[in-house]
């Protein structure tokens, strides 16, 4: 039962993503009657823009991993959605509008062309366009005895997954240029040191030694701001903008752990019962504010106050000034990310529903999709409505891209088949629900996600894609209009 | 009483000759490529030419579905992969059983190569069977939907090939528990490795020539006219008594057969055949060739396959590409002069071809110069270039460079077939 609920949760999360993407397919199909193949690439763009903006923001305001403020995610979401909206507008204007009266096959080929263009343009190597922050640490360069190191004059914290460089500044303010051992002229050297806090007086390793300095120079350490183009030529990892934590776990005990003479144990200060077949964890909040999650591997049973609990990796010195929380993991783990995804998806879907069915613009969109020419005779600015539809679809795809990057932070290169498959599944969702029908797209999205999630759990995970495409072929053969689609009569 | 009636069907001898001379010509062409062009060009250009020949087979066969019949298939690489894997199974495991080792056996036209050809033809047969299955949905679907189904087909093939079992490299393992019929030992995600290299210029260009001949014969036959009529208007074709279902499926089967054969040749050309070869990205390459060359034009598609097949190698060598600019400029000037100044139609056509080809070459040369200047790796721009070309061709020349016409159609003088003149006011008695 717990398995079933957990998979249902996965399916609902995935379904929200599929629904957001498939809406873009279905809206464009409803109006222009062609499959916008480039739609899934706009979605990928959304994910990569989220990555770029998030890494840049995290670096620029120096946020430590896992401690992002809540508005960071909102900012990244808005950036992703607006970039995708602009790109969607440009695609429609430059590639599809000249073909408004062309045969559908030509538009389809153009769409494939746009899709290939986005994919391949996205993974060109432009190199790092990065800038730098203002110096985070300065101090005098002491030439001897170790020229490959600099000694900090003030405490400094090197944040994980970020790079730092140092320059040597002469007393007159200019930057010293020196020859590196490989013969190239450099102005800055990379800091090679593990991330973490450094006290004043500690040393940092350098990629190249500062040599031939005249003396009297000071060093300046700055953090490199990652500023890449939105797409990537190699896989990247989305920085976390949400705490990675389940919202429904229960805290069984908390307090200050007593120091045990046996390492690998903590002494409980409240009675606790450990149930079989459940996961337990101790979160140790250390004196310096760091959180250290540790797995409990003790036998099930009752633990009275003062009893020892086996927590490997606990060292007595870690316990000084620390507080602990004993946490029981829930059987169905609801991540904060899942909640964020489903909530944002629902909000976006409601907004879209209001836009399409309750606003004047939405009425115009429906009129254009009903009959292109009649709508223009009724004074509806058809081109503007079509542009708006594209932008709406692209904005939703951008939002989905951000949410996807939250849920699955490992980002593949844009032409990776995983991305294209994801987009295709969203398209399948649109077809299964009845292409051209907004509610059908949402229904199809959830249906496809269910089939994928349950199919891969109960039958064979390797064949998840095969199930989805089989469903597509079956639906197309049995009811080509989809579940909620209305039949179209072929006219001569 | 029948004796006097003139026979409409050609005599048996004439039919035989009609069937055999293309084969002989193709074999002659293949031999010429093998013993004359190949050695003259050197080893590296030879491998490029072999890949170009395989690309021709694939693009020309895809043209039968996408160009002639107007169905839009983007799963062609799936058929290629199926054919390639079937052929590779024949040579790898067949060779292992027969000759103890899966390595190359026999010389030019030796037993090993014949096994490869037989395997490729078998692979073609398998692919054709799948083509029948994939063709069936085309009866109910058109345009975008069919594109998605064929794309899904290619993806399913890719996923299934990834799930195949571990490859066995020693004959003794075949009898043990390591050998499983399902999943077949085809290498899984790592790809089918260490296949013997049997493919050479002869076989590639023999099959390329046969494919082109076959496509041309189909285009000019009643079947081809049925294909073209389906493409132009399905309902009108049905009204003319054409069995749409039969012809659509037939187009898929024929195209899939040649794709399967090409897969067999590809698998034995010294590459590491992997499940990724069935993916849509490979399919798109052939679709681009068909679209650029002109959907329905065999010579146009062949030309596109040659240019696009050789382009990656050119982009890898920007120096040579940039050095070609004087020739390209010369072609442009000459072509412009010929197309404007000369009167004879074939001359102006030749001039136009020179002009267009020269402009493309000049553009590439400038691109190469930029590449040399910026010290950039140009081969990464290949797909960007392709996709831009695809969009621009669709906007400015929607039927591809040659449309449905063959290259030589443009050289025929217009006066030979004057358009029927209609008097104002309609027909006169």
Structural key phrases:
heterodimer; A: 492 residues; alpha+beta; five-stranded antiparallel beta sheet; four-stranded antiparallel beta sheet; 11 helices; 44% helix; flat; B: 429 residues; mainly alpha; globular
Explain what you see.
The complex is a heterodimer of chains A (492) and B (429). With 492 residues, chain A is an alpha+beta fold. Chain A is built from 11 helices and 21 strands. In chain A, strands 1, 2, 5, 8 and 11 form a 5-stranded antiparallel sheet that branches. In chain A, strands 13-20-16-17 form a 4-stranded antiparallel sheet, with no helix packed on it. In chain A, helix 5 packs antiparallel against helix 8 and helix 6 (360-370) crosses helix 8. Chain A is flat, with a radius of gyration of 28 Å. Chain B is mainly alpha-helical and 429 residues long. The radius of gyration of chain B is 24 Å and the shape is globular. The relative contact order of chain B is 0.14. The longest helix of chain B has 30 residues, at 12-41. The interface between A and B is large, with 47 and 43 residues.
Fold blueprint:
The complex is a heterodimer of chains A (492) and B (429).
Chain A: H1 2-32, H2 39-60, H3 70-96, H4 104-122, E1 131-132, E2 137-140, E3 149-151, E4 156-158, E5 164-169, E6 178-179, E7 185-186, E8 188-190, E9 196-198, E10 203-205, E11 218-225, E12 236-237, E13 250-255, E14 265-267, E15 272-274, E16 280-285, E17 291-295, E18 301-303, E19 308-310, E20 323-328, H5 336-358, H6 360-370, H7 372-377, H8 382-407, E21 410-411, H9 417-433, H10 438-458, H11 464-478
Antiparallel strand pairs in A: 1-11, 2-11, 3-10, 4-9, 5-8, 5-11, 6-7, 12-21, 13-20, 14-19, 15-18, 16-17, 16-20
Helix pairs in contact in A: 1-5, 1-8, 1-9, 1-10, 2-3, 2-4, 2-8, 2-9, 3-8, 5-6, 5-8, 6-8, 9-10, 9-11, 10-11
Chain B: H1 12-41, H2 43-68, H3 76-99, H4 111-135, H5 144-162, H6 201-220, H7 222-232, H8 234-239, H9 244-267, H10 280-293, H11 298-316, H12 318-323, H13 325-341, H14 345-374, H15 382-396
Helix pairs in contact in B: 1-2, 1-6, 2-6, 2-9, 2-10, 2-11, 3-4, 3-5, 3-9, 4-9, 6-7, 6-9, 7-9, 10-11, 13-14
């Amino acid at each position: 039962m717990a398995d079933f609920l957990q998979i249902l949760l996965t399916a609902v999360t995935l379904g929200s993503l599929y629904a957001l993407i498939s809406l873009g397919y279905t809206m464009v199909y409803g109006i222009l009657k062609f499959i916008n193949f480039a739609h899934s690439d706009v979605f990928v763009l959304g994910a990569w823009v989220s990555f770029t903006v998030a890494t840049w923001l995290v670096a620029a305001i120096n946020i430590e991993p896992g401690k992002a403020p809540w508005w960071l995610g909102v900012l990244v979401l808005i950036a992703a959605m607006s970039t995708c909206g602009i790109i969607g507008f440009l695609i429609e204007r430059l590639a599809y509008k000249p073909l408004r009266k062309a045969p559908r096959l030509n538009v389809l080929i153009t769409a494939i062309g746009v899709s290939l263009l986005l994919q391949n343009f996205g993974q060109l190597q432009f190199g790092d366009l990065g800038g730098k922050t203002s110096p985070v640490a300065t101090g005098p360069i002491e030439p001897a005895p170790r020229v490959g190191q600099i000694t900090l004059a003030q405490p400094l914290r090197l944040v994980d997954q970020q790079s730092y460089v140092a320059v040597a500044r002469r007393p007159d303010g200019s930057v010293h240029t020196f020859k590196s051992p490989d013969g190239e002229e450099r102005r800055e050297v990379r800091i090679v040191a593990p991330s973490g806090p450094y006290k004043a007086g500690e040393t940092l390793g350098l990629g190249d030694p500062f040599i031939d300095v005249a003396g009297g120079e000071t060093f300046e350490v700055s953090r490199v701001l990652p500023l890449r183009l939105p797409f990537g030529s190699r896989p990247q990892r989305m920085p976390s903008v949400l705490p990675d934590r389940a919202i429904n776990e229960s805290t069984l005990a908390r307090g200050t752990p007593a120091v045990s003479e046996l390492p690998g144990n903590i002494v409980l200060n409240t009675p606790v019962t450990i149930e079989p077949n459940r996961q337990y964890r101790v979160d140790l909040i250390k004196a310096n504010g760091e959180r250290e999650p540790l797995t409990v591997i003790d036998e099930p049973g009752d633990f009275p106050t003062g009893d020892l609990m086996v927590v490997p990796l606990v060292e007595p010195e870690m316990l000084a000034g620390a507080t602990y929380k004993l946490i029981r993991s829930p059987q169905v783990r609801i991540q904060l990310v899942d909640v964020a995804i489903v909530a944002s998806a629902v909000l976006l879907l409601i907004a879209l529903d209001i836009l399409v069915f309750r606003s004047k613009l939405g009425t115009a969109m429906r009129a254009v999709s009903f009959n292109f020419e009649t709508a223009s005779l009724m004074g509806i600015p058809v081109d503007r409505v079509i542009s708006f539809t594209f932008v709406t679809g692209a904005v939703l795809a951008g939002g989905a891209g951000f949410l996807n990057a939250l849920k699955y932070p490992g980002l593949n290169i844009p032409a990776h088949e995983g991305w294209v498959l994801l987009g295709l599944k969203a398209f399948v969702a649109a077809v299964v629900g009845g292409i051209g029908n907004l509610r059908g797209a949402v229904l199809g999205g959830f249906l496809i996600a269910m089939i994928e999630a349950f199919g891969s759990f109960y039958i064979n995970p390797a064949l998840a894609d095969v199930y989805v495409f089989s469903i597509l072929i079956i639906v197309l053969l049995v009811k080509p209009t989809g579940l909620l689609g209305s039949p179209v009569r072929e006219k001569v | 009483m029948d004796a006097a009636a003139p026979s409409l069907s050609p005599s048996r001898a004439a039919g035989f000759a009609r069937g055999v001379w293309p084969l002989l010509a193709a074999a002659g062409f293949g031999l010429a490529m093998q013993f004359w062009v190949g050695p003259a060009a050197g080893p590296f250009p030879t491998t490029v030419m072999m890949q170009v020949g395989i690309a021709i087979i694939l693009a020309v066969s895809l043209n039968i579905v996408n160009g002639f019949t107007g169905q839009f298939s983007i799963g062609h690489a799936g058929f290629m992969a199926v054919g390639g894997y079937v052929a590779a199974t024949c040579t790898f495991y067949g060779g292992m059983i027969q000759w103890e080792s899966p390595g190359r056996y026999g010389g030019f036209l030796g037993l090993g190569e014949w096994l490869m050809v037989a395997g490729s033809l078998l692979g073609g047969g398998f692919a054709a069977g799948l083509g029948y299955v994939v063709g069936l949905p085309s009866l109910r679907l058109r345009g975008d939907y069919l594109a998605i189904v064929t794309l899904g087909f290619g993806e399913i093939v890719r996923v299934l090939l990834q799930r195949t079992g571990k490859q066995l490299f020693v004959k003794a393992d075949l009898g043990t528990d390591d050998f499983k019929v399902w999943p077949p030992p085809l290498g899984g995600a790592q790809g089918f490795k260490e296949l013997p290299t049997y493919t050479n210029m002869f076989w590639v260009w023999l099959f390329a020539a046969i494919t082109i001949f076959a496509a041309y014969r189909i285009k000019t036959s009643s079947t081809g006219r049925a294909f073209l009529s389906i493409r132009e208007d399905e309902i009108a074709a049905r009204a003319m008594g054409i069995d749409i279902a039969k012809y659509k499926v037939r187009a898929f089967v024929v195209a899939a057969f040649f794709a399967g054969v090409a897969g067999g040749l590809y698998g034995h050309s010294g590459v590491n055949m992997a499940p990724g070869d069935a993916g849509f990205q490979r399919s798109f390459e052939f679709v681009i060739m068909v679209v650029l060359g002109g959907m329905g034009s065999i010579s146009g598609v062949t030309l596109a396959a040659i240019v696009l097949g050789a382009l990656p190698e050119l982009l890898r060598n920007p120096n040579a590409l940039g050095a070609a600019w004087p020739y390209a400029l010369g072609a442009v000037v000459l072509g412009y002069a010929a197309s404007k100044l000369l009167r004879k139609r074939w001359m102006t056509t030749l001039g136009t071809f020179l002009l267009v080809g020269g402009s493309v070459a000049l553009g590439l040369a400038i691109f190469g110069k930029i590449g040399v200047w910026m010290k950039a790796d140009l081969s990464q721009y290949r797909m960007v270039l392709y996709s831009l070309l695809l969009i621009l061709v669709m906007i400015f020349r929607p039927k591809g460079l040659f449309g449905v016409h063959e290259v030589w159609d443009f050289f025929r003088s217009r006066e030979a077939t004057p358009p029927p003149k209609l008097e104002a006011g309609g027909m006169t008695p």
